[in-house]
């Protein structure tokens, strides 16, 4: 398992960091997305045969982390190339790959991902969105909530379940639903979180789709679903680590420059040690993220599942602590618009909550890794 990045990865980090620095906090996300696509960063994980960079989640996580560290993370990187692009690349038909992957790679097309439901939450076994056959077509009925970027996406990859899944056996199916499909409606959710990517509630009212809207085999079930969920957790970790690094960098710069009684406040251990701890925890989270990405890219879905959950947990915790300590270091200035840290207080909690809560990760580790009795 690599613990030191290759020269190629280091070069990618430097190049993306330079892009992020040019745009910086407050960047126009559409402009940044377009430039990142033209430079080949959005599709580094997708096959070269379909316009991608031929890399993996290891490379894509570097892109998101460095943009986050520059203060301009692109949340749709988690969804469009990481989840949807990966699923289509692994399980899509050749026609689906040709139709979607080149656009997902260069950023000219985007795809959202719809799994969360009002009554299911983190429990994918309670998904009620159903897909039933009507001749050669499919009819989808159900609701989804907290779906990111539907308004700017050309289509949404919807997770449903076949009609006979009501017997208790989970058989998720994934369908590509174009944005303007009849019966497919969206309603924005009023969020306190100020993010470029908006959240939506979706309603699917007998949405009719052709047979080729199904991605992969309707009986492949969990294999296809977790082909997207593991990258989602890894990329969420990258999002959190980048945000934590951005906050920490601001605090370090302030602690070096802010002088009280002729001494920089960073010279005091009460200020320096918490920042050092935050840095250590972010670095440890990055190591687990790199392990998870390496396992996933090597085709070890089972090993990647455990590591991806741990990486997401560690990064979420490290990010919240880093942001909190950064604000505390700046004192009153940490709550001003000038320094741009206060907005991260809310944003940092996203990695604790989504795409799966830290409590569900602890359930997973205690049951799957430690072999303890299942509590739910």
Kindly describe this structure.
The chain has 376 residues and is of the alpha+beta class. Helix content is 49%, strand content 15%. The chain is built from eleven helices and ten strands. The strands form two sheets. Strands 1, 2, 3, 4, 5, 6, 7 and 8 form an eight-stranded mixed β-sheet that branches. The protein has a two-stranded antiparallel ribbon with strand order 9-10. A hairpin with a 2-residue loop joins strand 2 and strand 3. The two termini are 34 Å apart. The model has no long low-confidence stretch (mean pLDDT 93).
Task: Give a short summary of the structure.
The protein is of the alpha+beta class and 376 residues long. The protein has helices spanning 7-23, 29-38, 57-69, 76-91, 94-106, 222-257, 269-297, 301-330, 342-347, 350-353, 358-369, and strands at residues 111-114, 130-134, 137-148, 155-162, 172-178, 184-188, 199-209, 214-215, 259-260, 263-264.
Map the helices and strands:
Elements: H1 7-23, H2 29-38, H3 57-69, H4 76-91, H5 94-106, E1 111-114, E2 130-134, E3 137-148, E4 155-162, E5 172-178, E6 184-188, E7 199-209, E8 214-215, H6 222-257, E9 259-260, E10 263-264, H7 269-297, H8 301-330, H9 342-347, H10 350-353, H11 358-369
Parallel strand pairs: 1-4, 2-4
Antiparallel strand pairs: 2-3, 3-7, 4-5, 5-8, 6-7, 9-10
Helix pairs in contact: 1-3, 3-6, 4-5, 4-6, 6-7, 6-8, 7-8, 8-11
Summary tags:
alpha+beta; 15% strand; 11 helices; 8-stranded mixed β-sheet; 10 strands; 376 residues; single chain
